[in-house]
Amino acid sequence: MNKIYTLSDNIITSLGFTTEANFSALKKGISGIAQTTDPKITQVPMYTSVIDSEMLKNEFTQYGDCSDYTRLEQMMILSIKKALSKTNIIPHSQDTIFVFSSTKGNIDLLENRRQDIDHKRIKLWALADEICRFFGIPNKPIFISNACISGITAIIAAAHLLQSGKYKHAIVCGGDIISEFTPSGFQSFKAISSNPCRPFDAARDGITLGEGVGTLVLTTQKNLVKESNPVIFRGGANSNDANHISGPSRTGDGLYFAIRNALMEANKSNKDIDYISAHGTATLYNDEMESKAIGLAGLENNPVNSLKGYWGHTLGAAGIIECIAGIHSIKENCLIKSLGYNELGVSIPLNIITKFETKEIKNFLKTASGFGGSNAAIYFSEESAD
Amino acid sequence: MENSITKYCLIDSTKVIVDGKTEFENSANESFGDYMKSIYKHYDLKYPKYFKMDNLCKIAFMASEIILKDNEHIKTFDPNRIGVILQNSHSTIDTDLNYINTIQDKSNYYPSPAIFVYTLPNVMIGEICIKNKFQGENTCFIAKEFDTDFISEYVNNLIDSGKVDICLTGWVDYVENNYIATLFLVEKIKENQKDNISFRPENLNRIK
Fold it and tell me: What contacts A83, CB < 8 A, 6 or more positions away?
């Protein structure tokens, strides 16, 4: 079976427009979360992580006319451009497949924010078509909308497509924007934190939403990879709680099955894992469920963090940008502090990372769970970590 | 060995077809809600949660129940190895618009969690998994039209690589009273029975 190499990546969030800017903020413990009273986002003051519109405009005008593209399309095109600029991949080739993930796509069009843009692009596939047209992609893109696990599902689906040999390269791009739609929905669930979110902490009281886009470029072609010991995809799996459409499982069994199946495909055991990047949304029930799943997998002593304290929950981007951060934790041999954590607030005593530390990291596991009872786990490690 | 369709169900605005046979017709030309209620009664379903679902989930759930109700065979599988892989075009646009109506007028602002939860297309997979206790691979793909090449390749790969033993898959879409669900139960079967349809794009194109 083909080996799947991670070739290049990009993260666009409130913390910056490059992976380097984002990862450097993470290493320093800097958060992009701030309070907003923007009436286009929320009726009451709310903490969120949003990208500066002027900065986005300035960055995007190098590549296209802002009046032709929605906010999310601009972010996605920028992110893919920046990720591809570090590679020799030609996107307009039969060898390249695009895999997209988003929960709500161009939801601002449905709120009538942009009268000048064809409202057909509210359809997720039409958003993908628009991006593919920009890059001249001949292959039909794949689009995944799997709630909060969308980004991880997209990477797993892309890796499995590459393993089959049908394509040589996959460009996995996922994102969501913050408009009025998603914040009001989570507010109606009383799930928004009154302060920046505090994953796994005893005082946690809900999520902080964020917007962002991540792009991860995967390839089967080792000759394109510059590093001597690149990070590779080892395995991944999805599962379902079969319990409740919006409430996490009380036992963590669904997420545990995804972790177990990802490890099985990776041909690794729980002893190999150096670091777990958890979903850690900071809702009472998600973090409790996740601690149980991590316990069931025998991973309670492994260092774990949630990155939601830096850029909030970025929905369709979350799985991708958090995998990219994990890949860079391997490359730079470091563990990122779980921001917002002070005192253990889950029933299984997890080994939460409380300060930035440099340490040899070869293997990492990323997990996520979401509405619809969905769970996902994905395993990356250095090529030499067999 | 090739994977086979062991049962399928198509629901559109005029009829319900199961394994090639028309089992129910919308002869009274009922609206979506009434038509679904008639199908619900026809198949003698008893699942109160159905009435809380949005229209996309209702039609997906209905097609899944017609395939899985009283199906003793499915109970012989490990729930972790039963997959549900669906594809759709309009995501949850119908419910998105209903939800937007609850937040757009600030003098009449009443966002509802009961509506908001249905603004994610994979929730229809969640509903099917909850009813049947399926815990395996589950993904919602979005495409302009039912991409039978991709879905057959993806699902065959899930089965052939040993990630699932059986998979409920197909196409479900709902927008402005245009709706369709075409679901297939796909598995590897040991003996070659001549009625079985191979899970190939050409067969899906013939049925859809």
Answer: A8, A9, A10, A171, A215, A216, A217
Put simply, the answer to whether A145 touches B96 (Cβ < 8 Å) is no
Q: What confidence tens digit (pLDDT) does each residue in B129-145 have?
A: 999 999 999 999 999 99
Which residues in chain A are contacts of B101 at CB distance < 8 A?
none
Alpha helices in chain B (DSSP H): 32-42, 55-68, 93-103, 113-116, 123-132, 148-160, 201-207
Question: With the CA atoms of A178, A182, A187 and A189 taken in that order, what torsion angle do they form, in degrees rounded to the nearest 10?
Answer: -150
Question: For position A205, what pLDDT does the model report?
Answer: 97
Band of residue B193 on the pLDDT scale cut at 50, 70, 90: low
Q: Which helix (H) or strand (E) holds B171?
A: strand B166-175
**A103 part of contact set with chain B, CB < 8 Å:** yes
Q: d(Cα A335, Cα A257) in Å, to the nearest integer? A: 26
Q: Is the ipTM of this complex over 0.90?
A: yes
Contacts of A240 in chain B (CB under 8 A): 84, 125-126, 129, 134-136, 138
Q: Cα(A355)–Cα(A337) distance, rounded to whole angstroms? A: 5
The answer to whether B100 contacts A111, with C-beta atoms less than 8 Å apart, is yes
| Burial of residue A62, with CB atoms counted within 10 A of its CB: 0-12 exposed, 13-18 middle, 19 or more buried | exposed
DSSP string, B121-158: TTHHHHHHHHHHT--S-EEEEE-SS--HHHHHHHHHHH
**Contact indicator for A102, A72 with CB cutoff of 8 Å:** yes
Chain B residue with CA closest to A164: the answer is B157
* Dist. CA A210–CA A174, nearest whole Å: 13
Listed in sequence order, the residues at least 6 apart from B195 whose beta carbon sits closer than 8 Å to its beta carbon are none
The amino acid at residue A373 is: G
Q: Tell me if chain A has a CB within 8 Å of the CB of B106.
A: yes
Question: Which residues in chain A are closer than 8 Å to B122, comparing Cβ atoms?
Answer: 145-147, 370-372, 374
The continuous run of DSSP H or E covering B107 comes out as: none
- CB-nearest to A238 from B112, B139, B161 is B139
Please indicate whether, in this complex, the C-beta atoms of A123 and B93 are within 8 angstroms of each other: yes
Residues of B in contact with A181 (CB under 8 A): 96, 99-100, 103, 119
| Distance from C-alpha of A208 to C-alpha of A196, rounded to nearest angstrom | 6
Cβ neighbours of residue A133 closer than 8 Å, sequence gap 6 or more: none
User: What percent of chain A is modeled with pLDDT above 90?
Assistant: 96
Say how many CB pairs under 8 Å bridge A and B: 146
A181 touches chain B (CB under 8 A): yes
Give CA–CA dist A370/A148, Å, rounded.
Answer: 5
Disruptive mutation site among B49, B122, B130, B158 for chain A (greatest number of A CBs within 10 Å): B122
Per-residue burial over A151-173, b = 16 or more CB atoms within 10 Å of its CB, e = otherwise: bbbbbbbbbbbbbeeebbbbbbb
Residues 6+ away with beta carbon under 8 Å from A254: A239, A240, A241, A242, A243, A293, A369, A373, A375, B135
Please answer whether residues A248 and A285 qualify as being in contact, where contact means their C-beta atoms are separated by less than 8 angstroms. Answer: yes
Residues in chain A: 386
Q: Is B97 helix (H, G, I), strand (E, B) or coil?
A: helix
Q: What is the pTM of this model?
A: 0.98
Entry field: residues in chain B: 208
